[in-house]
Amino acid sequence: MSAYLALAVSVGVLAVLDTWLYFGPGASTAIAGLVWVSFIAWGCFFQSGAGTKGLMTAILGMTFGALVGVAAVLLASGPLAGLGDPWAISVTVGLGAFVICLASKIPQLSVIPASVYGFAAVAGPIALGVKGATEALLPVVISIVIGAVFGFVSELLANALTKKA
């Protein structure tokens, strides 16, 4: 089959499995509802060049961004809380973006969007009140790893399904 169709088939089939992991009978309550983080990491894997490079970029970059996001929330609700909600949150998001951009000098963190995705991914469960800042980190990182691995496997499967010339 063509590479185009093979990728569509592999991603489609594996998307069923990925989603089932989050909502099926054996789903972990620790990561319940974070399937969207897995899909962001999956997309980040391909956006980062796929292969081993894409796998490492998605996992390291998104995890770093999630750590920066947790730090921003802790700053906004701690030392900078006196600024009031709109300002404390705004200032810490700006600081987080600043740190993410500076960190891009490190080769493993050079894909700024990967870190931004992680920052945003950890903000979701915190902003929705589902998890506190530190409680959100581990489930988000687990979902990042799951999504990046699904990206890697979908690439391998698509390559296996592609008709060779």
Automatic annotation (TrEMBL):
Supply the alphabetized keyword list: Membrane, Transmembrane, Transmembrane helix
- Protein species of origin: Alteraurantiacibacter palmitatis
Q: Per its UniProt record, what Pfam families does this chain match?
A: DUF1097
Instruction: List the InterPro entries.
Output: DUF1097
> Domain of life of the organism in this record?
Bacteria
Is Transmembrane among this UniProt entry's keywords? yes
Membrane-crossing segments per the record: 25-46, 58-81, 87-104, 111-130, 136-158
| Record's protein name | DUF1097 domain-containing protein
